[in-house]
Amino acid sequence: MITFEQFVKEYGDFRLEISMDIPDGKVVGIIGKNGSGKSTTIKAILGLVKPTAGSVKVFGREARALTPRDKEQLGVALSDSMFSEVLSLEDVIAILRAMYREFDETFSRDMCAKFGLPLKKPLKEFSTGMKAKARVLTAISHHARLLILDEPTAGLDVEARQEIIAFLKDYAGSNACTILITSHISTDLEGLCGEFYLFSRGRIVLHETDENIGRNYGTVQIPFELFDRIDRGRIAGFRKETFGYACITNDKRYFEENHPELKVKSADIDDFILLLGGGTDE
Questions:
Q1: Are residues 107 and 234 in the same domain?
Q2: Which of 32, 70, 160, 229 could form an SS bridge with 36, CB 3.0 to 4.6 Å?
């Protein structure tokens, strides 16, 4: 579905250098601090940036060479992009009907009703949560093979976020599509994505399945006096703190069996970002 092969993109001092392969039917999360390369990766998939070196292919074709028919198989919701706010959703539906041969008007209208989105009100009068829902619904309205959702819940309150994530879970479970989602809110991705890529300073520093993260990874606080005696191969990342090191391990059973005096906790996405992911400006 999506293949980055020795892909490089340079912007001044920033350099994105990645290789990754996202197959059909997966729900994949891209995580990392601001400036780690997430947005540039999305732009590359959409053919909006020219590689400095390497390639990115979508549907087996170079991203910048996708045909109009190929592009109809993309559904995109970007955090800072939307139709003109003078339009209403009724206007948007008319535009989408003309753009996409597979546009599902009945589904779109049903989803607007489900989410309480008025069809005739200008988008400029929508709340932040309503605009976020409209972006997601626009992306899925034509049953695309590939959904790209960039920070779909950014700036929303807890209730609105939960509503969108619950909807995406249902949609992913009942539709044969690939979903690529970026977010800095860990609870949005946990339980939704089956795989994760962690970006740091323009590189992929971790690629794991949700299952392996739950089974093998954990966090542990290690006192200064013990740190040098720990097998460093069991520590994926660490940060110095006041009373020792905050560590993330890829072998939590090792600590449970060999250092029962240390409390091992399950690792979440925030732990990976803090202990493995740095950041730099793009």
A1: no
A2: 32
CB 252 within 8 A of CB 216: yes
> Does 10 share its domain with 84?
yes
What is the residue whose two structure tokens read 């892909």?
7
Average pLDDT of the segment spanning 269-278: 83
Give the per-residue pLDDT at 175: 83
Provide the domain limits for residue 228. 218-266
Residue 44: which pLDDT band, with cuts at 50, 70 and 90?
Answer: very high
Determine, yes or no, domain membership for 88: yes
Instruction: Output the CA angle 189-192-198, nearest 5 degrees.
Output: 45
Backbone angles phi, psi at 247, to 5 degrees: -125, 155
Is residue 173 predicted with pLDDT exceeding 60?
Answer: yes
pLDDT of residue 280: 37
User: Is pLDDT above 60 for 10?
Assistant: yes
Antiparallel, parallel or unpaired: β 218-223 and 244-249:
antiparallel
